[in-house]
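Input sequence (208 aa), recorded before submission:
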Amino acid sequence: MATDARRTRLADAAITTLAREGSRGLTHRAVDRAAGVPEGSTSYYFRTRLDLLRAIVRRMSELDVASIPASAHTSAEEFAEDFTAAVHGLLTAGRDRQVARYELTLEGTRRPELRQALRANAAPVHDRLTEQLAALAVPEPGDRAQDLLALLEGLLFSHLTAADGAPPPGDTVRRQARRVLHAVGVPLGADGQPAGPRPAPGDERTSP
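Predicted structure, token format:
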């Protein structure tokens, strides 16, 4: 159990290092420093760079799957709210994870073994989304889940690479997330518009 906790801690530190220092800055020693562990700890658990990269991929997959509710929704509105919260989370608290994913994806174009790991660990996310869409009676849920992931990647990339680098307002995230869901057939209102106003993620405020 202690070994698993140490591996998770190092994988989390590696994600942060990759996102902030880039692929060239991802070294075993850099991860040691980021995790606050004795030098040599990372290389003990992950002997090679590929071992470390695979650990990052596995950890990101765990976090991605955890962000999708395990039980399938029967209400499109409930699913839309949870999906919006997940998108907002990737643009804020999960920003490093998403930036690290871009770094890995680019490196994967030159390293087939890494590309295979990325594909394999993306499968549980696709399967979970397929279950959600099937529960909402969306036709061809497997294909639509793939479409949803592609649209989501575009949405995240456009915000994370914006000139100012600041997270978008919560109401913007909510509007765009709902339009993405509407585009793949989730039965929401016209163009994904909600039936009534709700607070956007991060915008839950009380009046003074």
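Checked by second reader. The first helix runs from residue 2 to 25.
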